[in-house]
Design brief:
Layout: H1 7-14, H2 27-32, E1 38-40, H3 49-57, E2 62-65, H4 71-84, E3 89-94, H5 100-109, E4 114-118, H6 123-131, E5 135-140, H7 143-152, E6 157-160, E7 166-167, H8 173-183, E8 188-191, H9 197-205, E9 210-213, H10 215-218, H11 227-235, E10 241-244, E11 252-255, H12 258-268, H13 273-280, H14 283-288, H15 313-333
Parallel strand pairs: 1-9, 2-3, 3-4, 4-5, 5-6, 6-8, 8-9
Antiparallel strand pairs: 7-11, 10-11
Bound molecules: ligand TUI.
Length: about 325
């Protein structure tokens, strides 16, 4: 930390506003060659070339989610994205996928500039990806995993709190981000519970160099998720998400619906992991592509309650950034 000379310097320093120590030092913009340090969440069955290219065109980092898709499907999405935008974009490789290995090869062949990994460690692919010039950014839910990833040589980490939608860890963004920031020297990107400029400003205060936003992009104009899914997110209140699957070791946050209630009931009755997993299989696809909002899995984060508008990806990115700068200025004026 820089020398602190007065009480007001101390306040400014504690707010993370000292040059080179906060989100606005352009670390992430330089690392990814993007205009805004806003990364779109890689949502399985949802984040395709349409959403990713719109976000990248608008100056954020668009992300194609490989989810559980085969390598050739992911390749098609990569090719479509390259045809729409010449800006950098990323592929999110979900490491629990049976196709993770082939997707890992496709991203090298297609010269994808950035790979984000979820639900595991990217260790076995790291050397091949780095040799191909790919920046590797794992999502981590704890200090221990963050430390392990830094030692492994990854380029940055996305620290995801349990406010996020989908597969989550146990800690909140507020508690987790500063602890990982303290433990690591590589850039930290905050995720989970961030949906507007206030959330982005808060993440900057915690020491994050960028943010990842999923749920708000889910309802945006360029997102091809089923209309019924969008309507459920737009209708959601603050208390409308629930975590299921703690018993299977794969806790998932999503909107409360018939499937989630059945899942919780089965979990409470001590059902086997196999039985629970059978109920979850194909559920996200059913909701995201077929619009089955009762029997499908409506994965979404806790900020669903404040997502009330359909906007373009460009409007979302520009307004989140502008609001973050405004609230930071407003708070610092009162010091
Ligand atoms: O991956 C996510 N969110 C997801 S993946 C997904 S698709 C899915 N479908 C069914 C079952 C499971 C997933 C929906 N949402 N977020 C990133 C994330 N990564 N959250 C937590 C983690 C994580 C967990 C364990 C990262 C690393 C990790 O490492 C364990 C190890 O192998 O050491």
């Amino acid at each position: 930390m820089k020398a602190v000379n007065s009480e007001s310097d101390l306040l400014v320093a504690s707010l993370g506003l000292v040059g080179g120590k906060n989100m606005f030092d352009k670390t992430i913009e330089n690392l990814f060659q993007i205009k805004y340090p806003i990364i779109q969440g890689g949502m399985a069955w949802i984040s395709d070339s349409s959403l990713a290219s719109a976000v990248s065109e608008a100056g954020g980092l668009g992300v194609i989610a490989a989810g559980g898709a085969p390598g050739e499907i992911v390749r098609q999405e990569i090719i479509k994205t390259k045809n729409i935008t010449s800006n950098p974009f990323a592929v999110n490789v979900m490491l629990l996928s049976p196709y993770a290995e082939e997707v890992a090869k496709v991203v090298v062949e297609e010269k994808v500039p950035i790979v984000i990994t979820g639900a595991g460690s990217p260790e076995k692919y790291l050397d091949a990806w780095h040799e191909a010039g790919i920046k590797v950014v794992p999502v981590v839910p704890s200090v221990l995993l963050g430390t392990r990833m830094e030692k492994m040589g990854v380029d940055a980490v996305i620290v995801e709190g349990m406010e996020a939608g989908g597969h989550i860890g146990e800690l909140t963004t507020m508690a987790l981000v500063p602890q990982v920031v303290d433990a690591l020297t590589i850039p930290v990107i905050a995720a989970g519970g961030i949906g507007d400029g206030r959330g982005m400003a808060a993440a900057a205060m915690l020491g994050a160099k960028g943010v990842q936003i999923g749920t708000r992009f889910l309802v945006c104009d360029e997102c091809t998720v089923h209309e019924n899914y969008k309507e459920q997110v737009l209708k959601a209140r603050d208390t409308d998400t629930i975590v299921t699957g703690r018993a299977t070791g794969h806790p998932i946050r999503g909107l409360k619906n018939k499937l989630a209630r059945e899942f919780v009931k089965l979990e409470k009755s001590g059902a086997s992991i196999e039985e629970l997993e059978a109920l979850g299989t194909g559920a996200l696809q059913r909701a995201a592509r077929e619009g089955d909002v009762a029997g499908g899995a409506l994965m979404a984060g806790q900020i669903a309650g404040m997502v009330k508008e359909r906007e373009s990806a460009k409007v979302i990115i520009e307004s989140v950034y502008k609001e973050a700068v405004e609230v930071i200025k407003k708070v610092s004026r009162n010091l």
